[in-house]
Write a structure and sequence with these properties.
Layout (H helix, E strand, L loop, with lengths): L2 H64 L5 H21 L7 H32 L3 H26 L4 H14 L29 H8 L8 H8 L10 H4 L9 H9 L4 H11 L1 E2 L8 H8 L1 E2 L1 H8 L1 H5 L2
Parallel strand pairs: 1-2
Helix pairs in contact: 2-3, 2-5, 3-4, 4-5, 11-12
């Protein structure tokens, strides 16, 4: 081997050792820089997992405080459902009657819910006094409270007599009539509420008498079937009756509504266009504010807008 070859071999060996040393130094440097960070990340993760149940336990009372209390009427209905289930179980198992402890517990629960419900109604009446609610609404509420008081008194009497098998059966029958049961009407695919009207063509009128029979409205004595047989799919209208022209709770004929209709010439087309352009649609469901409030606020949902348009045809007659 020549001296030149020996030098080249030494040079390659030195270069190889140098590369191995650099790689070893880089790996040790990376270990010194990244291993502490990875260790700290693991420590933080384990600490978080350990303390997570305690943090949730601390926030649980706040979450419970933010949960709204159930409605008194709903709470009363739940007590009735629980009592009904208890009575059904006792009758099915052949129990001769409730014990005095069971009677007292049920009576106390019912009285507590009745007190909550009456307190809620009293607060409702006070809010109505401040907002000047109509007398018709107040009369409906009074009738509802009277029916509830009678039903509650009857329930207490049956519950006090439920210490015998006959009294238990009487209480069961009363609860079955007092608690509203869900309706399970079978579905008739041939009688759906929304369906396409069958295509029934009516023969054209060929003389004046036949045309008058089509255009002249039938009297109520002639019956609905006779009218459908004569008209077929043709829909006919009649003059409004006093009941059609009477104001309602949702669609009163106030002075402001009459004035707005008169300003538009009592023209249904102009009135509809004005409501379409001036009343802002608010996406909600049900009759919320009625015609007058919709006119005042210039906004309302579909029910309120319809209530505002409803008195307009009545004012024309």
């Amino acid at each position: 081997m020549t001296p030149l070859s020996c030098d080249m071999v030494r040079t390659r060996r030195f270069s190889t050792r140098l590369q191995l040393g650099l790689r070893s130094w880089r790996w040790s440097s990376m270990k010194h820089h990244f291993l502490p960070a990875i260790c700290w990340l693991l420590v933080v993760s384990l600490t978080n997992l350990t303390l997570l149940p305690f943090s949730r336990a601390l926030t649980l009372p706040q979450t419970s405080a933010m949960t709204p209390a159930p409605d008194p009427a709903e709470s009363y209905a739940r007590v009735l459902s629980a009592l009904s289930a208890q009575v059904d179980e006792a009758v099915a198992s052949g129990v001769r009657g409730f014990s005095h402890t069971e009677q007292a517990s049920a009576l106390n629960a019912l009285e507590a819910e009745r007190t909550r419900l009456e307190t809620d109604w009293q607060a409702l009446r006070e809010r109505w006094d401040a907002t000047d609610v109509s007398a018709e609404v107040r009369e409906r509420q009074q009738a509802l409270e009277k029916v509830f008081a009678q039903s509650h008194t009857t329930l207490k009497q049956h519950l006090q007599q439920a210490d015998t098998s006959a009294g238990l059966l009487t209480l069961q029958a009363f609860l079955q009539t007092a608690i509203a049961q869900p309706t399970r009407n079978p579905i008739d695919l041939n009688n759906l509420p929304w369906q396409v009207e069958p295509n029934r063509a009516r023969a054209p009128a060929e003389d004046t008498e036949a045309l008058e029979r089509v255009l002249t409205p039938l009297t109520p004595a002639q019956g609905h079937d006779a009218q459908r047989h004569a008209l077929g799919p043709v829909m006919r209208s009649s003059a409004p009756t006093p009941a059609d022209s009477a104001p309602t709770l949702d669609a009163p004929q106030t002075a402001a509504i009459r004035q707005q209709a008169a300003a538009l010439g009592n023209d249904p087309h102009k009135i509809y266009q004005w409501v379409h352009d001036q009343i802002y649609f608010f996406p909600s469901y049900g009759s919320v504010q009625g015609a007058q409030d919709t006119l005042d606020k210039k906004s309302g949902n579909a029910f309120d807008t319809a209530s505002l348009l409803e008195p307009i045809p009545k004012l024309r007659y």
